[in-house]
Write a structure and sequence with these properties.
The chain is mainly alpha-helical. It has six helices and no strands. Helix 1 crosses helix 2. The chain is elongated.
């Protein structure tokens, strides 16, 4: 089990006019070139670690690859498999392409109760809300950072001032993606 590699942001900061959907050639939430490299290297690491346990040659009787139904996760799985299973000479189907396609299976998001991170779970949502609304540590963090949360809420344009601690992901995601993509 592994996650996807680096991706473009999934959400944008409304007031950031220099970081719009048009900024990201592939679109939002898509795997970047760095993400592809990370996944390929992870496949190579898995090959090294499990060499002898896994056959060098891909076999559908030995491995089954399942992904959630997002472009970034499907492409991550493909890049990982490319690193894990370098094609043998007899598997190369085009001399200039050193790659062997390996099936990656998925099911539609709305049916995926195993890998879909957007599936609704009322108990989990209630617990998350309880933590942010009632937990003493969460409340302390909000009190200690009230000025910063107010400032971020005003500047980001999400319509929540101060920005709730629970919504900080909406700031972290685009800022983290920009830093990782541009460095």
């Amino acid at each position: 089990i592994w996650r996807h590699g680096d991706r473009t942001p999934s959400v944008l900061i409304p007031t950031d006019v220099n970081n719009t959907e048009e900024t990201w050639e592939l679109g939002l939430g898509e795997l970047t070139k760095l993400g592809l490299q990370q996944e390929f290297r992870l496949g190579r690491f898995l090959r090294e670690r499990y060499d002898g346990f896994l056959s060098k040659k891909y076999s559908p009787f030995e491995i089954y690859v399942r992904s959630s139904d997002y472009n970034r996760t499907l492409v991550s799985a493909q890049a990982n498999m490319a690193g894990l299973f370098s094609p043998t000479d007899e598997e190369i189907f085009m001399p200039d392409i050193k790659w062997r396609p390996i099936p990656v299976h998925t099911i539609p998001k709305y049916l995926d109760k195993l890998l879909n991170d957007e599936i609704s779970c009322p108990n989990a949502e209630a617990e998350l809300n309880r933590v942010y609304e009632e937990d003493a540590k969460a409340k302390q963090i909000e009190r200690e950072n009230a000025n910063m949360l107010r400032y971020l809420g005003e500047k980001a344009g999400f319509g929540k001032i101060p920005i709730p601690l629970k919504d900080m992901w909406h700031l972290f995601d685009p800022l983290n993606s920009i830093v990782r993509f541009r460095n």
